[in-house]
Amino acid sequence: MPSSSSKEPPYRRAPPELEELQKQLKEFLDAGFIQPSKAPYGAPVLFQRKSDGSLRLCIDYRALNKIAKGDEEKTTCVIRYGAYEFLVMPFRLTNAPTTFCTLMNKLFHPYLDRFVVVYLDDIVVYNNTL
Fold first, then answer.
1. Please, what's the largest Cα pairwise distance for the chain?
2. Start and end of every Reverse transcriptase domain (predicted)?
């Protein structure tokens, strides 16, 4: 990992953001999406306000996106409650759409052009009677 991705202190948060951070952290842990990490580096976490006013958790993976071939440890993010790494593919990784599309094409290969179409993150299943 580039030295610019060293483990930096987590960003400071306003109390409403801390509350949302704790909520989303618990959801991700309970769902098995992340696990505690001992990686020597981590990407910073920030929030983006959505149009409905809710907060979307975002991880700044720009440094990671500059390097090739990754593994779970490289998805480590740092927050005030520790470091966590993803066990599933997170959003905003450069190769995530291509990797997902390739996996779906392999999975649905026997059915492609018969009754399944895969386009990026859309999967259409069709038949003549619908």
1. 57
2. 81-129
User: Any idea where the domains of the chain sit in the sequence?
Assistant: 3-86, 96-125
pTM value? 0.50
**Beta carbons within 8 Å of 109's beta carbon, 6+ residues apart:** none
pLDDT for 36-46, tens place per residue?
A: 888 777 788 88
Task: Look up residue 32 and give its amino acid.
Answer: G
pLDDT, tens digit, for every residue of 60-89?
877 766 654 555 566 777 778 888 877 777
Residues contacting 85, CB < 8 A, separation 6+: 34, 35, 37, 39, 72, 73, 74, 75, 76, 77
Alpha carbons 37 and 51: distance in angstroms, whole number: 32
Out of 3.10.10.10, 3.40.50.720, 3.10.110.10, 1.20.1440.230, the CATH code matching 3-86 is 3.10.10.10
